[in-house]
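Section 4.2 – Deliverable D4.2 (structural model, holo form)

The reporting period included a commitment to supply a predicted holo structure for the target in complex with 4'-deoxy-4'-aminopyridoxal-5'-phosphate. Inputs used:
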Amino acid sequence: PRPNALSESYWMPFTAARAFREAPMMFVGAEGMHYLESGGRRVLDGMAGLWCVNAGHGHPRITEAIRTAAGQLDFVSSFRMGHPGAFAFAERLTAAAPEGLDHVFFSNSGSEAVDSALKIARAYYRVRGEGGRTKLVGRAKSYHGVGFGGLSVGGIGRHKRDFGPLLPDVYHLPLPYDPARMGFPNGRPAVGADYAESLEALLAVQDPSTVAAVIVEPVTGSGGVYPPPQGYLERLREICTKHGILLIFDEVITGFGRLGTCFASQAFGVTPDLIACAKGLTNGAVPMGATLVSAGIYEAFMAGPPEAVQLFHGYTYSGHPLACAAGLAALEAYEQEGIFANAAAMAEPFAQALHALRDAPHVVDIRTIGILGAIELAPRGGTRGPAVADRCFAAGVLVRAAGDMLVLSPPLILAPAEIDRIAQTIRDALLAEA
Ligand code: PMP
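Output (structure tokens):
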């Protein structure tokens, strides 16, 4: 196997020297479920790029929309200017969002969508004369990007360790997960709603009138695919409503069909006050993030606090013409090609194929929901995951390793044969590691 080709070092700057020393997997093209190597080999993409290419790679409709947009208007600022494509996309996006989230702030990534959500939440209370509400609550093992806001509310210690001091007045709830207690027969534990009481416990210590927002991923993604126990998100919603605290869902991974509905909040029947999304927003084809908010939050933010002229927030590239064109085409493709419905139909075969790996060597836990899966391997200092992923890659299947864990989120256009190939390739790789 290649030297740790799937390790986090891949994130480092693309200097030529580094990229070649680390021997990354190099792709020159992509189509549908596959990446293409320069030698012509096709690699089955078990990760949808990085949880983003939900309609498959190189989607003709999206590619064409980007091409057309690039020929029309290269750039226009979102500060007192705009273009029709941004409004058309905002309309389509909010129509697909849960009831009530009908305004959108565009940005360029998941990290920015999250930081925007956190800033908007605080500003909302400032405008309402509740400026004392500044505290933020995140959750253990959650990933909210690499900006200082997202990093601060995020719950993956090793990501944060070397960048402090981070935001003050941030608190974390525990991960609602205990394999011994819950088990994962169908991917979604029936018990564990009571983990939400940790929020009440926190609010018994931290005065609720000092807390602005609670942010959670509906399904913990990068931290290891932990589906929420039944009733847990509902209870978080209740507690936030009771104390007047805003609930933010980070749907950067779960948005755009991973759970068979456009947003996870629709799958779980729990509506947050704000949603941060990115990735599948444009099918990964152009960088973009979006923060969806209710009319009340939007109006407060736009009005600004009494003593200020106007709140300032926004990015140079907010609502970029290429991104809006890609996003609109992606939403049309998702809807017209029944891509979320396919995700819903494939969820059960996907779960069965992965859970069937329970008896394979080194496997200690398997978690699935929708078209998301994690296979936890017996710990070996973080080297087992990359070793197994490298074997899969050698066999032509791309899976992601995160320490001693394999993570799967293939494009939502997957078919049973591809599910079987992914599962069989992982089984063979685990057997070879024995
Ligand atoms: N939130 C979640 C839940 C994510 O999974 C990610 C990216 N993996 C982010 C935020 C950050 O997104 P980006 O990398 O586009 O900044």
